[in-house]
Amino acid sequence: MFKTIALVTVALIACVLVYAATRPDSFRVERTARIEAPPEKVFPLVNDLRAWSGWSPYDKKDPTMKRTLSGAASGPGAVYEWDGNKDIGQGRMEILAATPPSKVTIQLDFLKPFQARNTAEFTLQANGTATDVTWALYGPSPYISKLMGLVFNMDRMIGNDFEAGLANLKRLAEQR
Asked: What does the alpha-carbon distance between residue 164 and residue 160 come to, in Å, rounded to a whole number?
């Protein structure tokens, strides 16, 4: 009886491991919000990392997080490093490219609780007098991420943060 239970358990674990290996090799999470302001008003709030404290959902998750800004004041070369609680971890982001007033591309390096290098991208599309802002995060999905994805819905976890951040960005841009 014990041998049968052990064999069934090993077979189930093997099935889960094999299934995880079949998951996609990359991921993408994105959310879009319409902001009732022109792209020229929204763009500086994304392109200047000092402005992120006014709308980033991660700043609100850990108000005591240590932040270090360096490099350019805004745009390519602007760097934001953080070291926060268990919900925020530690990492670094650097603006790699900016096309005013339509796109900002950021290299996002997570250091703790796990290491990962991803790309964050903000796309601003004029829509009449408003702006459709898309916040996307994408990158490779190593095996451990594929395995974790069987338990945690990364799209929902990250997507909820993006929705909160875009709502904050909307409030801030529409006040200006």
From this structure: 6
pLDDT in tens, 70-107: 999 999 999 999 999 988 999 999 999 999 999 999 99
Q: Is 109 in contact with 120 (CB distance < 8 Å)?
A: no
Q: Return d(Cα 119, Cα 105) in angstroms, integer.
A: 7
At 73, which helix (H) or strand (E)? Answer: none
d(CA 7, CA 94): 49
Kindly list the distances between the CA atom of residue 12 and the CA atoms of 6, 9, 17, 146, in Å, as whole numbers in the listed order.
10, 5, 9, 17
Better-predicted residue by pLDDT, 145 or 174: 174
Which residue(s) pair with 32 in the sheet? 134
What residue type is 150 in one-letter code? L
Among the listed residues 50, 49, 53, 69, the one whose alpha carbon sits nearest the alpha carbon of residue 61? 53
Tokens found for residue 10: 């090993």
Dihedral sign of CA atoms 87, 143, 105, 83 in order: positive
